[in-house]
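User: Second chain of the day. Same drill as before.
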Amino acid sequence: MSEADTGPFNLPDGWVWTTVGSIGLIANGKTPKGINDLNSEGKIPFYKVNDMNKQGNEKFMRTAEITLDDDEVERLGIHVRTQGTVIFPN
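Assistant: Same format as last time:
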């Protein structure tokens, strides 16, 4: 067996080596043009890296400076991620 099959070290019983891509979706995004000019009171948060520094967002994202409604999401072509999505900032 190669290291790709066994990994660089032994795992606890019942664990297996895998890749991130085989257990979840990896996607990137960008801020759509014009989103900062919106004055929406929608219910869909649009999280930006700066929102991660807000009090209350230390572990889980709870508040966003920008919130959108369904029409804005569609018009801007935004893909809404499900609750529980893991966010990795640049």
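The chain has a mean pLDDT of 87.

User: Great, on to the next one.
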